[in-house]
What does this fold into?
Amino acid sequence: MCVRYRLVAILALVAPGCSSQVKPPASVPVIGSVSQKGRPAAGIVVKFHPQFDIGRLKYIPSGETGPNGQFILSTGAAGNGAPRGDYIVTLEKPKVVSDREHSGIEMEIDEFKGKYSDPTKSQWKVTVKSGDNVLEPFDID
It folds into this structure.
């Protein structure tokens, strides 16, 4: 069989599986901000851990703060917000470092050393409601 025909046969078998895309859950807009000692905090990853059954796929809505400390949540699609419900909020500040002592391998660490990343110890709880959700700022020390 010619290579061209094999490729067409393979694509014919694979293509139907590509059309069944996973769709994110229904969501509403959610925006917020993070400040550190009263100043906008950039580069913070904000995660909303659902306290309800979010569905078969266990999405964790998240966003990253920009230079002005603001974030827009996404749940499976850029900027689409989060499903309505109750959440526990965690924060991390990722930083890439090199392990020069051992192998020079780069790894990502949390600059906050886990201080705000454990959902069981989080001080922030949020309810996402219908309509636009503009949250109170999350202030960290």
Q: What stands out?
A: The chain has one domain: 23-140.
